[in-house]
Amino acid sequence: MASLTNEAAVSSSSSSLPRSSTNHQNHYTYEVFLSFRGGDTRFNFTDHLHTALCQKGIETFRDDKLSRGDDIPQELLKAIVESKVSIIVFSQNYASSRWCLDELVKILECRKLKGQEVRAVFYKVEPSDVLHQRGPFGDAFAMLDQSKYKDNIGK
Questions:
Q1: Which residue of the set 103, 109, 117, 126 is catalytic?
Q2: Backbone φ, ψ for residue 113 (5° rounding)
Q3: Mind listing the domains of the chain with CATH numbers?
Q4: 5-32 pLDDT, tens digit each
């Protein structure tokens, strides 16, 4: 996670995001994958970000595109792989969600293996608290049942 804190926060300009849907060589389904803790940001920041990206014509995946009955974890991981850019909205309770942490692990794998671009947004949390897992972010991380998640904690 340390490398994410060095990434620039998302700009309101769409020019910083690559246009991949018009380039058929890339085979991306989505230009952007949004990773966020729903309870913290779904109906405020992330909703506004999603709307702004869509208004700029940027094909954006958000978990509300999943149909009932879909294998949600597998569909989320597939959407990450099929995205050109991942935007992670770190919030106070992000680390309390195993799904969010599973997404984060997959995003970082795609960054390493496929060169996927990753951008971090820090919503009501300090970047250093995410890096060092302290403050409200660290408290949320500590609340996660780490015994069930021990294989991915290091990742």
A1: 103
A2: -85, -35
A3: 2-11+26-147 (3.40.50.10140)
A4: 333 333 333 344 444 444 434 679 999 9
